[in-house]
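Limitations
The structure tokens in this dataset are predictions for the assembled complex, not deposited experimental models. Users should treat interface geometry with appropriate caution, especially where small molecules or nucleic acid strands are included. An illustrative entry is reproduced here so readers can see what is and is not provided.
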Amino acid sequence: MNKNKTLVTAAVILIGDEVLSGRTKDKNLGYIAEFLGEIDIHVLEARVVPDQQSRIIEAVNALRPLYDYVFTTGGIGPTHDDITADAIAAAFSVNIDYNDEAMAILRTRYEEKDFNDARKRMARIPAGASLIENPVSQAPGFQIENVFVMAGVPKIMQAMMGCLAHRLEGGARMMSRTVRCDIGEGWIAAKLEVLQSEFPDVSLASYPFFNKDGMGTNLVARSTNEESLNKAEAALIAIVNGDSGK
Amino acid sequence: MNKNKTLVTAAVILIGDEVLSGRTKDKNLGYIAEFLGEIDIHVLEARVVPDQQSRIIEAVNALRPLYDYVFTTGGIGPTHDDITADAIAAAFSVNIDYNDEAMAILRTRYEEKDFNDARKRMARIPAGASLIENPVSQAPGFQIENVFVMAGVPKIMQAMMGCLAHRLEGGARMMSRTVRCDIGEGWIAAKLEVLQSEFPDVSLASYPFFNKDGMGTNLVARSTNEESLNKAEAALIAIVNGDSGK
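Predicted assembly:
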């Protein structure tokens, strides 16, 4: 029971032309949202922005005052189109330079003859940031204040999330119950609305789906109050069973 | 050849708590981006916002002056949590009421005894909007100025895109070429940067990937100028073949 805790919130910024062109189908938002949900942090907004410094700065500075945490993915590799670190430094108005710790980490991966300027670029970290470990390919992410900057490759991003999780503090637990029914949401909308008014601390939502057998609806109740949630769930089940629709 | 055309741009707003919680893994952004790309409209930003009127209004009014087109998905069903139509009306400061044409369409789907208040709610359309046909489940989307409001269920959204496409006018065609190589991007980053400076009208990007055989890189060149693009592609192939990396 976390009745006395408040919700802890987050925003996600996906950086990359390839997501906006549809070339890459994003898998990071869903992963991050579920990962954070498990530790009681709630993603309330996401933005996808192109590889343009001004657009990254704008998104970061719009969101970091509004949410407890901001997570970015993408644009921290070795090539000229990897501009996230510079954009974050600019967003925070801090310098960016080769970071000793990041250089040492990268030297464990690359022999000196292979540690070229492009790869050294991955050690450029905004002043005041702390590194985020990358167990997959070493090149680190970083945290500056409440902003966590991660790689865009899902396998690396997921590993980074695991490594930074201990720095995050969750709040109230949002619990959910799903009641599935095989009728269209139009049949139960009125009863659902009444139920919503009866449970102000429960958020009721209805998600229609279509499959080969026709249409159906998932009714989802979410709340930080387990007692209210249990009552709302029982009421949802009663609605579904009592109103077959035809 | 569309050398004289300018880029036509779009933004996408995905509306729904379920996408932000990770419960629903979004498939709409990738579909919309590819669909629009095929008709020479380029998605340059996307936002995911919760089912809250103020947040929908804010996103719509932030994006509609910046892009040629804005597409929203989600929140136009019959239940109390479907608030997109009201939010769009508020964003445009217009009234919203039962739309005669939408009512007539819904009456073709529902018998009078089943056409309850919840279902009639799906005929509430902002003043001045034109309907978007829904061949799957009839309840229409709508267009108001440069904003297209569609369902969130992928099957319905995709059908709506097909029905509204004739209203859209594309611009310059963005063409792309992909050169795949089996070496990490750090080996070719320096040459790629030089190449980028030689082709200012081509956008060069590098996307690393990891699979069971190790890591590799997709080098992607994009341009509206086919001649430059062909030259850049040839140069990319030369880089990949000439620099095996080891």
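Some entries come with short summary sentences. For this one: Chain A touches chain B through 66 residues (CB under 8 Å).
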